[in-house]
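Could someone model manganese (II) ion with this protein?
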Amino acid sequence: MKLSNTLQRRIILEELRKLECHPTADELYEIVRKRIPQISLATVYRNLELLSEGGQVLKLQQTGKQKRFDGRVESHYHVRCASCGRVADIWDDEVIAVNRQLDVLVEKLGMEGYMLELNDRCEKCREKDEKPE
Amino acid sequence: MKLSNTLQRRIILEELRKLECHPTADELYEIVRKRIPQISLATVYRNLELLSEGGQVLKLQQTGKQKRFDGRVESHYHVRCASCGRVADIWDDEVIAVNRQLDVLVEKLGMEGYMLELNDRCEKCREKDEKPE
DNA sequence: CTCTTTTTAATAATGATTATCAATATTAAT
DNA sequence: ATTAATATTGATAATCATTATTAAAAAGAG
Ligand SMILES: [Mn+2]
Ligand SMILES: [Mn+2]
Ligand SMILES: [Zn+2]
Ligand SMILES: [Zn+2]
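Reply:
Sure, complex below.
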């Protein structure tokens, strides 16, 4: 089924690409709503799914966590906050190196792929640790 | 809060430990039901959660729809079937080596941990590939 | 045994995601 | 440009996994 060119789809991808962060569907919905106020959350979900099938969007999913989406599809790596679930890019040579090794290993074992995610606590959650009140 | 010794909790852990597979809460519920027919699914969920907090059970939150649980808590690694979501143990020296490296890296970066998921297709799904009808 | 605490079964509630569907928009064909 | 075929939308219902609630039962302490 060929994707047609709709305003909704275009804006969803456009707004996602503007973001440094990795929003959930509902976070992106709130942003897109500013430009298309009557858009439905289901439309955002539907399009993120289609775009990720088409390889224009990365879907970061883990059981028990809300899905998050990434407009950058070039190969790069992620850290997830262990307490709030937010995801950030990580640029660290050793992380890159381990991923390279995994590429090779997965290839050699004839597997489909892998998913490596580092866990940490994000800035915001660290601040809360300081002053818990 | 100290855990008391209930029949339900004991049997849940006992049955989980008997399994080679990594069941979802409802799969384990069906098994435990044979011994305690009136047990509730919520009890299974509650106890798996408590047992995993207590370190007697591993909770596997990988990609997929449902959490899976593991009665073996010694350090070991998993492959997940990309199509049905089933999880199996993997015993491969190189996989172990990469995990060791990740332990070190995570330690060095001062992070909380990591989640590495290897993806493949399980036997059952491979068979289906053969005769799709 | 008696009091206090914890757990249970049953079931309702929740939250994220997906499905349904009639109305509308996009694309392809004339 | 008109029309026919196809895809998409917004609204909302449904689903599914999981968690919360609660009165009754069981377990632990003394
Ligand atoms: Mn990213
Ligand atoms: Mn295992
Ligand atoms: Zn955080
Ligand atoms: Zn499978």
